[in-house]
Each structure stands twice: as C-alpha cells, then as structure tokens.
Specification:
Helix content: 25-40%
Shape: elongated
Strand content: 15-25%
Number of helices: 17
Structural class: alpha/beta
Radius of gyration: 28 Å
CATH architecture of one domain: 3-Layer(aba) Sandwich
Number of strands: 27
CATH topology of one domain: Rossmann fold
Amino acid sequence: MSHSISNNPDREYPHDKLVAELISEHARKTPQALALASESQSFTYAELENRANELANHLQSLGVGPDVLVGICLDRSPEMVVAALAVLKAGGAYLPMDPSHPVARLQFMLGDAQLKVLLTQRNIAERLNPGDCTVVIPDEIDASSNPREPKAVPLTTDNLAYAIYTSGSTGQAKAVQLTYRGLLNLIDWHRRAFSITAEDRASQVASFGFDAAVWEVWPYLTVGASVHFPNSDTRGSAHNLRDWLVQQRITVSFVPTAMAENLIGLEWPTQTSLRFLLTGADVLHRYPSDKLPFVLINNYGPTECTVVATSGAVSPEGGSDERPNIGRPIDNVQVHILDENGEPVPADTVGEIYIGGSGLASGYLNRPEQNAECFVPNRFSQLPGERLYRTGDLGRYLPNGQIAFVGRADEQVKIRGFRIEPNEIVTALNRHPGVSASAVITRADNGAEKRLIAYVVGSGIQLTRDALQEHLQTYLPDYMVPAVFVEIDSLPLNSSGKLDRTALPAPTSANSLGDHVYVAPRTAVEKRVVTILAELLGLEKVGIDDNFFFLGGHSLLGTQLIARIRNAFDVELSLRTVFDSPTAAELSDTIERLLTREQQISAD
C-alpha cells in the first residue's frame, strides 16, 4: 500500500476570495443574521462588518499591511473575533496572545515578534508596559463614525493570515507563521466534511492562543453561520458545557481531548442539535457510547500544519484494545511515516510522522535554524520547493489507511533496557472501572534510573496500588507497570487543554496509593530480605509479596540489592534473578535454595 495517503491530494478549493471578502459577502446578503453571540453581547453580520471595517481603517493608518503581524491580547469574546477580522481586512496577520498567560511570556512575545501594534484592553496594556508598540483599544474606537471598507490591499494565498506561539523542545516559545493557503484549505475541507451551512451554530471553547480557535471561527463565519461563546464556568465543567450545548442548540462543537472524554461519558438527551463533537490536542483514550446522539470526530494536527492534518470519526468500539485512531489526512495534505533514515516504513510499522501539502506553515518567525531542522525538502514531491514538516510524533498506517497515533518520539523512555510509550500504559489504566482518567510520566530521583509514575483520577471505586498493578499485568509486561500510583482529583491542563505534565505533583507517602494487603515475613531469611528492601527503597516496611520493581526498584538499585544480599547471606544472585523473582518471598526462596546447596557441597 502507499506510505502517503490523502483523501483528495489534488482537490481544488476556492482561493480567489480570502476570509474577509467571504465574510463581507454575508454581511451584504444577510446583514441581520446572527454572527457572534455571548452572554453579554452579540453581533449581526452587519454589525461585525461595520466594527471590523472601522478598526481596519485605523490599523491601516498605523501602517498595517501585508505580512505585518498585529498582536491581539483580548479575553475570549465576540470582540476578539472582531479584532482578528479587522487585522485581516487591513491586510495584516493577527497574533493571538492569551491574557491569562504570565506577563513575562506576553512581553517575550511582544519583543520576539517585534510587534508594532497591539490590540488589547486598557487594564491589560497597563500590565504589559508594551514600550514602543502602539496600543489600540478597540472599545475606544467609534465604529459608527466611519464604517467604510478599508483600502483594498492586494493579497495572495502566500501572504500570512495569522501566527501562533507554540512551546518547543528548546524550552523557548516560537511563532509559527500560517498563510492563507492553509487556512482556505482548512475552511473548504471543514465546510465540505461536516456539511456546514448558514444554519449551523458553532461553539468557541478553546483559548484564543490555541490554534483550534482558528478552526472554531473562520469556517463558520465564511459560510454565514453563527459562533457562540460559553462563559468560563461553563467551558470548565463537562456537565455545564453539555447543558449549554443543548440549550444553545449548538450543531458543531470543538473541545480539547480531556473535555471530550468527560463529555462522552455523560448521558445526553436524544433530542439534541449537536451533530458533531470535534476533539484534538491530546491522545484520545476512550471510545464513545453507541447511545450518544452525535458523532465524535478525532483530529490530529500540529500548529505548523494549520490546525488539522488528519481527521476521522470514532466508532463506538469500547471493547477494542487499540486506542482510537486519528483518521486519515484531510484534503490536500499528505502524511508520510518514515524510519530513522527517512525511508517509508511498511504498513502497521511505527515511524515518525512527516506532513506535506497545502497546510504547511511558511516557517517559524526569526528561527532559521529551527526552520531548517523541522521543515525539510519533500523528496516525495515532483514540485520544486515542496517541504515536509517533521512532527517528532510517532505513528503507523493501519491496513485500512487510517493512522494510529503512538506518541511523541521524545516522550518515549527506556526502562530496564525496554523502550516504553507512556500512552500505552494510560490506555490500559483507563480500562479499569475505578479510573476515569490517568497520566503516566517518568521521574528520576536523586540521579537514579527513571521510574514510571501513574496519576489516576478515580471514579468512585476504592483504588489500591495492588489492584491497579494486577489490572495492568493483564495487558502489559512487568516492565511497563508503574512503580507508584498517585491519586489526584483531576488532571492538570494547560491553556490549550493539553495535559500539563509539569503541574503533576511529586509522589509522597501521603498521596501515593498503598497496597491492599500487607503480608509479613514468616522466616528469618524473609525478615532479613524485607529489611534490606525497605532500607534500599527508603520505605517503612515491605511485604513479602511486594514487587521490587513496583516499589520503585530499577537495575541500578538491583545491583545494590545483590551486593547487600551477598553481604548478608554470602550468596551470589544475578540481576536476571532479581528480574525473574522480584518479590521478597521469591528472592528468599532463591536464597534458601542457594544456602541449602552450599551446605550440601560443604557436607560432601
């Protein structure tokens, strides 16, 4: 089979009109139709057009034009969309800045992007101290005074539409620059794939600094539909968001993965307007129930590829051992799965995901070295200058042409010489009826070898380390079973709705789950062995059935265990023996056999 698949690799999409022109058409055709709505404000298409035109005129007077970035630091609201549309009308490209982010990060963006103009609120501007950057407060511009069309600016699909800062492996955020080519392709695919019409009512849930917000707005406004904004209390609660989606008659909604997993676990009224629940941003571990009145769509796409690169409906297959896949490439996008030498891997073989086609960003702003590293020549294309984006993600093509997401290449870890993908453990953990959500990371304490730590959110059933380890052993080899389980109320998420691993608490004796049953030592050898294990692992006590590796042991500690057993019993164990007999009872049996053999040899 082909190692690069696209639904319609050469599908034509309209690009003679850009986003602002398409929205202006609806302002002329249906001026009184609802465009944007929140609890506190709403705009018809005519109002959206007039306000955006006035602001665009002002921006042009400040020098905004093609490929000029304009910062927008506003709270989630219809005004935020007005500001973004005004930037596009002025011919510029908008750069969303989430006002909930730390001031230092926002100031870094201002300086790194060398912004000359910033659209924001008065109180935010005072906090930021933007220096030479011209601050524009949209609320203080009278839209009724001069709502004329801004001066026409010649633009092509190669011009920038927006830029978004994304965190990188380097530890420093970088701005990804996206063009109209990718945005128009996304809009056209989305409208066709989900049969979007002017009758649709979409939600705007994602943070403005997260690229999903691009997807939540422009495909709908360019077709004359309406976009609705839940308040922060609503968007933060699955129950509240479900009720709001039903009450507002939302037909298509995007929510980050963690929220989607909560929503599909709820009961829904059969009479609901919601047709599609779109999700993405993190690894989806759960399948929907066949009782849900809408279709769950799983999506995958780095910011560098204009929000969505692959997409697919998730069928109700709760019994499947595999995680839900990420679907197929969208129109005009190609996905190659390559090995370490850049060669295509066979179907069902894991490799790194490379993405080509219309959605690719023009590159990172002022990052030539990272551009060269991440955007590489596309040797699979006959067109000159074509590139591939190297995602750093691992995946495999399934025989049916869909793609299974495996994880991040840089999140894979080696434990005891075995390469482990933490998401595989999460999938198995989430099958436990007492676990509603989980995360698995590695930690290395005091310079020791890394060990697996599992964080679990309970569903009301009493959880113990013993029970969870026993559950995991039915699905995973021993080396993939975490040493420590920490129960938490909820998984910490960042502003993009992704798991915030840095916010997971360090394991302590207070927050870590204990064993269900402690079995005391019975023999003198067992008493000595559990004492050695407790001292070595820094534990108060160890039962004879406790697994050395599940308690946090690793190969480095294993060699120390062997040395202490040698000193205590004058017998020599191999590391292999510790791996094969990891409990105190098994180790004691082995020691007693060796001691008996030594006595027999001495007697002879």
